[in-house]
Structure formats: C-alpha cells, structure tokens
C-alpha cells in the first residue's frame, strides 16, 4: 500500500513548497517584550508620564506609583502615601475634617484588633491567646494600646504590653494606659522581662504586635528601641509571628528596610499604604476607614479606599 503524502501547499513561486511563516508570531512577541522593557525603563527613571490608558482594552497604568520590581514580580499594585503626604492628610483630617486624634486612634486600633482576629483566631473558650503588644512613644503606640484594649474586652485574648518610653506630652496616652490597668492587663517594664516572656520555655505568646513606629519614623534607631528592635531582628526566626502597625518598625517609610528587619509576617496599613509597603511580602491589610471621597481624590488614593466593601473596616490587599 502506498503511503499517503502529506499535502503540500503550493507557493506562488513555481516548484517551491509553501510553509506557513512564523514571522507574525515573533513580531507580536517582540513587540510585547519591547513594550514591557519600555514600561520598566520609564518606571525606573521616574519619567513624569502619569498614566498610559488604552480605553478599548480597559488598560491603565500609572508610572508614578509602581516600581520595576512590581512589574517583574507581578505583585499586587496599589496607590501609596509618602510620609510627607500622610502627615499632611492627618493634619487635614484633624483641622478641616474636624476629627480628634482620639477618634482616629480608636478606628485605627480597632482595625488592628480585627486583623489579629482574622489572621490569628483565638482558641476555643475558656482558653485565651496571649499577645505581646510593643508600644512606641507616638500615635502608632496609641493604636497598639487601643488594639490591646479591644482584644482584652473580647475575652479570647490575653494582651501583655511593653511601653518603654511613655509619652508625657499628651494625657490621651495616660488615659489609654489607665483603661488597660482597669482591665488587669499586664505591663512589662524592661527588655529582660520581654525576653523572658518570649523564651520558649516560659512563653505561650501566640503573636507580637509591633506598634512602635509609624510613618513619622526617621532612622537611625535610638535607645531604648535600638536594643528592642535589634533583639527582634536577630531572633525573628525563633520568635512568635509579628504583626506590624502601618509600617514594620525600623523600616524607612518611603524606602523600606534600612539595615534591620524584624521579619513581620502581617502588615496593617492605616489610612493608605506607604511606599515601603510595596516591598512587604507577607499578609497585607488596609485599615483606618475614615477617609471621605473628597480627601481620597485630593491625595489620589481613591482606588485603594474603594477596596472596602459594605461594612468592612479592614480589607486584605
């Protein structure tokens, strides 16, 4: 039996078999590759082109927000607030917005507590989950104190606070501490006590809340926090998981890690993410839902604020 020959397409040129060309496919691939290179290059040099938009394809890209790392790693993209913009926004909320610092702190602290409950659910009652809250001298520390109060009131968590440098300039912080004292929340007074609590032989600590520094932090670290953050950084593999409030303590707000990294596995960005959050690789939440649409538009964070749905006070990014 004769073997069937596979059909040969006839070419326009006599005697030359026709073979489908792969050139169009190579052309498309090359064009997409070059377009990607252009995006990365423009992003790297900070070219002042705000947005590329192709309406028919529902495509939009903002050069001023995303970094080359985001493009290559395909990490979630979101708008951010620089340290300067975050400070200005806070001032606007408390001036023309008529918010008090107490209100903002209560909303932010509750958001932190809610993320704790989502990421680190408590054991069945009557057991409780022990949480060490590291409290800084400013508003970030206040958020941690509020979170500790909510966790204690829920009855399923047993917060312990370490507040090495109490704020004396604002009576608000004294009131927050008094509220915890009335709930019989334990307070540690030295770093040695912290180390003893976290020793695996003594502990049962399920989580560390890092509410030491927020967006106003500027390196370098100073006493007594340098020793504390140094301890967390050098021992993070053997310590309980760490949840950081707004930014991992020790990070530069705009640039990220600057020599030390406490190894936080969860981050709760407040108001809006800060630029360093783009370099965070753990579970990332947004909390502090107090931004009205006008302020969101003014600071170009409407897209990230829109991620909240319904009655949510925290949202995973």
Secondary structure layout:
Layout: E1 9-10, E2 17-18, H1 23-45, E3 51-54, E4 59-62, H2 68-73, H3 83-94, H4 101-119, E5 129-135, H5 139-154, E6 157-162, H6 171-182, E7 186-188, H7 191-198, E8 205-211, H8 225-234, E9 242-245, E10 266-270, E11 283-287, H9 293-298, H10 302-305, E12 314-316
Helix pairs in contact: 4-5, 5-6
If you had to describe this structure to a student in words, what would you say it looks like?
Its cofactor is K(+). It catalyses: (6R)-NADPHX = (6S)-NADPHX; (6R)-NADHX = (6S)-NADHX. One of its GO terms (molecular function) is NAD(P)HX epimerase activity. Its main location: cytoplasm. There is one protein chain. With 317 residues, the protein is of the alpha/beta class. It folds into 2 domains: 57 residues, no CATH class; 234 residues, YjeF N-terminal domain (Rossmann fold), CATH 3.40.50.10260. The chain is built from 10 helices and 12 strands. The strands form 3 sheets. The chain has an 8-stranded mixed β-sheet, with helices on both faces. Strands 1-2 form a two-stranded antiparallel ribbon. The chain has a two-stranded antiparallel sheet with strand order 3-4. A hairpin with a 6-residue loop joins strand 1 and strand 2. Helix 4 packs across helix 5. The protein is globular. The termini are far apart. About 10% of the residues have low confidence.
First-residue to last-residue Cα separation: 67 Å
CATH architecture of the largest domain: 3-Layer(aba) Sandwich
What is the CATH topology assignment of the largest domain? Rossmann fold
Rounded average pLDDT: 84
**Percent helix:** 25-40%
Task: Give the SSE order as H and E letters.
Answer: EEHEEHHHEHEHEHEHEEEHHE
How large a portion of the residues is in β-strands, by DSSP E? Answer: 15-25%
Strands, count: 12
What is the 3D form? globular
How much is the radius of gyration in Å? 26 Å
H/I helix tally: 10
At the fourth level of CATH, the homologous superfamily of the largest domain is YjeF N-terminal domain
Structural class: alpha/beta
CATH class of the largest domain: Alpha Beta
Number of domains: 2
| Major sheet: arrangement of strands | 7-6-5-8-9-10-11-12
Biggest sheet character: 8 strands, mixed
């Amino acid at each position: 039996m004769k073997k069937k020959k596979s059909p040969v397409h006839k070419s326009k040129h006599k005697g030359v078999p026709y073979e489908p060309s792969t050139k169009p496919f190579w052309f498309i691939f090359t064009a997409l590759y070059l377009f990607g290179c252009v995006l990365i290059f423009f992003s790297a040099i900070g070219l002042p082109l705000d947005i590329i938009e192709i309406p028919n394809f529902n495509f939009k890209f903002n050069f001023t927000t995303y970094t080359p790392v985001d493009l290559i790693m395909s990490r979630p993209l979101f708008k951010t607030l620089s340290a300067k913009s975050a400070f200005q926004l806070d001032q606007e909320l408390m001036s023309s917005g008529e918010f008090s610092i107490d209100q903002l702190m209560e909303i932010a602290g509750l958001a932190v507590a809610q993320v704790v409950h989502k990421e680190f659910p408590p054991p069945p009652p009557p057991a409780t989950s022990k949480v060490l809250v590291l409290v800084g001298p400013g508003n970030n520390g206040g958020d941690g104190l509020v979170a500790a109060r909510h966790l204690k009131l829920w009855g399923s968590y047993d917060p312990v606070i370490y507040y090495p440098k109490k704020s004396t300039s604002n009576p608000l912080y004294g009131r927050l501490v008094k509220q915890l004292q009335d709930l019989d929340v334990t307070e540690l007074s030295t770093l040695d006590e912290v180390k003893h609590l976290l020793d695996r032989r003594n502990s049962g600590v399920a989580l560390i809340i890092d509410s030491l520094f927020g967006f106003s932090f500027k390196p370098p670290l100073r006493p007594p926090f340098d020793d504390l953050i140094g301890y967390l950084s050098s021992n993070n593999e053997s310590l309980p998981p760490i949840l950081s409030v707004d930014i991992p303590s020790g990070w530069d707000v705009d640039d990220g890690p600057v020599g030390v990294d406490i190894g936080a596995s969860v981050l709760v960005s407040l108001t809006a993410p800060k630029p360093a959050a783009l370099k965070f690789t753990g579970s990332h939440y947004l909390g502090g839902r107090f931004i009205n649409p006008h302020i969101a538009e003014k600071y170009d964070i409407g897209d990230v604020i829109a991620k909240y749905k319904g009655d949510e006070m925290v949202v995973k990014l």
